[in-house]
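Q: What would this chain look like folded?
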Amino acid sequence: MTAPRTITLGTRGSALALAQADLAAAALRAAYPDARIETRIITTSGDQKLDISLIKRTPSGAKGLFTKEIEEYLVRGEIDVAVHSCKDMPGDMAPGLVLAAVLERARTADVLISREKAYTLETLPHGAHVATSSVRRARQLTWKRPDLVIEEIRGNVQTRLRKLTESTTLTAIVLAQAGLERLGLHPAEGSITTEQGTFYTTLLETYPAIGQGAIALQTREADAALVAPVNHLPTWRAVRAERELMRLLNGDCNLPVGVRTREEGDSLFLDAILFSDDPEEPPREASAQAPANLPEAAAALAYAQLSNKPLF
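A: My prediction, written as structure tokens:
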């Protein structure tokens, strides 16, 4: 396609969202060195409605909570590329829009963050209060530690760390390794230091969210070629498999499903865990393998195991 003169990105305004937009801008600037890259900050419903629960399952879940308004700017032609955390994107999007590319995936681990001392999931005190905004994390934590009390927490990274510092009940919170690292923090080293103080960090072995660690670039269908030069193919194949599994499960970004996807040679491996709405029911697990160039096939195999439905 003809090199554009200006590319306008749309993003949320949090420090993490802006860091992700900066990464997208840098990639596009390398692909189009003569283009001017602009960033437009857009406030979403998720930024405004902090009283909406992301843990409690509802018929609509958190569908589009952090993407809808940005998509509306894209549909109207006021931005050229919407930059999202891939894990925030619902299975369906507005007509005429596509997930056109993804940047190289960051680390996908969840991180247990505490203030008093270093904890693992196993060494947390009995009945400890742990905060998260993810139903996926909540279900995995209580599956392994039924005694834990899960509290919901909303806000950006600094807000959540401040709430941990000020709380009289919380022992720990859980955040994504990718987001922390994009903010210049390094939880794999065992601690992080911010303006809120120093915190102990432990990487968890929980299954990540669908799309976790990937930055999604959404465009109008006719403009998909614009971001093709920055698309990271291994991440693209993994995200395709994961989002196809979400579609088959008729889910959204609030579905209590976790996935681990990796590419080895010519094969794509997808492991998944799915929780029902019954907290007493054990989760279902799946392991699938398919050719790397057929990521949707891996999703179909995993879905057959999770749903106990035959493929044909």
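The first helix runs from residue 15 to 31.
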